[in-house]
Amino acid sequence: MSSDTPDTNTASTIAVALHYDDNDEGSAPVVVASGRGSVAERIVAAAEEAGVAINENPLLASALENAPLNEPIPEELYQAVAEVINWVLHARGDRRSEPQMAPER
User: In terms of pTM, does the model score above 0.90?
Assistant: First the structure.
């Protein structure tokens, strides 16, 4: 989950929810939800309720907000998303090595 939560204007808040199966070698993360404003607030609330780690990354959220849902993220964002996934794995106490992303084509 990546979100941008500005201090003053919730209409410009962006939230993007990602799914990544770290047990499926060669798979790429996919955007499963994205939105601004009240939609973003609902995405963040659902993540909090489900105990999903939230990483605030405005630039990445902005880059991912228009990615097609349920399709692999754009290859040019693999490194940035891998860093977030690594952060999530550490946040939940997973001590495995950095997640492997699908190879560039």
Answer: no
